[in-house]
Write a structure and sequence with these properties.
Blueprint: E1 2-3, E2 15-16, E3 21-31, E4 37-42, E5 48-49, E6 53-59, E7 73-80, E8 86-93, H1 94-97, H2 103-111
Parallel strand pairs: 6-8
Antiparallel strand pairs: 1-8, 2-5, 3-4, 3-7, 4-6, 7-8
Length: 117
């Protein structure tokens, strides 16, 4: 699992709830050559008003994409920045890290009042 700080891609028009933090499951469709941008086909998000689609996401500072590749099934969390874009703040592979591999991260966010289900 990889967790981060802040940087990235613009997705204005999606309304944020819960402090702009949401999570979803999806399949990676491409990894940018510089490993700072992912295109993910994802289902609907929990925590923010964003339905299922394929879209690109920037990566927050500390997220390491070196072990991710096209076709990986992932669970990921995004956070909305001041510029209204969503950036991946945590990501894990479902097949190697477990089906609900971000549960601990989400529990931590909830206990800090950052995510309200």
């Amino acid at each position: 699992m990889d967790i981060a700080e802040d940087n990235a891609m613009h997705h204005a028009g999606h309304k944020a709830g819960n402090g702009g933090i949401g999570h979803a499951f999806g399949t990676i469709r491409s990894v940018d050559d510089e490993q700072d941008f992912l295109t993910i086909e994802h289902g609907p998000f929990e925590g923010i008003a964003m339905g299922a689609m394929t879209m690109g996401f920037g990566i927050m500072g500390g997220v390491d994409l070196s072990r991710f590749s096209e076709g990986d099934e992932v669970e990921f969390m995004v956070k909305q920045g001041r510029d209204a874009s969503y950036r991946i703040m945590a990501i894990c592979k479902k097949n190697t890290d477990g089906a609900n591999c971000l549960d601990g991260v989400m529990d931590h966010q909830e206990s800090n009042g950052e995510v309200a289900e």
